[in-house]
Amino acid sequence: MSKTARSKAEEQFTATQKKDKQFLQEKESARNERAEGVAKLKALRQAKEIVDKEIADAAEAEKAAKAAAKKKKKKA
Length: 76
Known about the structure:
Structural class: mainly alpha
Shape: rod-shaped
Oligomer: single chain
Largest sheet: none
Strand content: under 5%
């Protein structure tokens, strides 16, 4: 028994829809992976900026303490 042209067309259409759906899922998955990677890099950069600022603040505080000690020594 041969299939009618309509049933063949329906099968092809269904197969095309399935491929399209799979492609869109893969595309969304890739987009999510990229977004996660960007978020991770952003978090790492922000953490580095915080650490760098803490180091700079500590160095500035140490420099101020040394200057104060030197000034105090001169007065004494």
